[in-house]
Amino acid sequence: MHDVYNKGQCNVGDWKDIVAISAGEYLSVGLKSDSTVVAVGYNDSGQLHVRDWKDIVAVSAGNNFTVGLKSDGTVVAAGLDSNDQYDIGGWNDIVAVSAGRRHTVGLKSDGTVVAAGDNEYGQCDVSEWENIIAVSAGYDHTVGLKADGTVVAVGYYYSGQCDVGDWTNIKTN
Question: What is the pTM for the complete model shown?
């Protein structure tokens, strides 16, 4: 099949022992059972430079960058850092990460959230969030699931993606 958008991001046929995956713009990232990472796709910004990552427990692919959560609760990143989405050096005690278009969010074990990167639309305005159990960075917004089953969201509202005020009783697995 000929696809003008194919940058190799679907070349995962030889991947083995994968326990988690993430897809970004023109890239796919896989977490292997041995806590290492594989990546395929477009590598114009170095977003596939994850081969040396060790002790990784979660991965997330963004627009032109990749983040990984290490077993010690710190975060690593590869790829484009034009919007300070790598400003993660002081992050610790992180239990989940998510890469957006130009920002990174991390969920801390105490239920608070940290964010780095482009905040043009307020997508990093998460400092007051509490009791969060899951988080996801979108294109220009961030969404968090609270322990009580409600959802909070910040960022660009061009298609209603932050209209989550009436979401209740949301549960994880």
Answer: 0.93
